[in-house]
Fold:
Amino acid sequence: TWTLSTTPSDVGIFTTKIVVTSAYRDGSQNLALSGTIDNQTRLITVTVYWTEGGQVVSKNLQFYLTDLFS
Structure:
């Protein structure tokens, strides 16, 4: 079962962390690391990590979620 939470969540051997942050636009209205905050867009970062052979392994996925209809 997956649950959206502000703290990491354990599912079997996996720990999942989801972070939602502001997205920014540069002067050309392109998504950027800094600039003007786009109030209709959020940057979602999903991190899954687990232990394998005594080492912590992690995979990250980043994507933008936007409100196209506002």
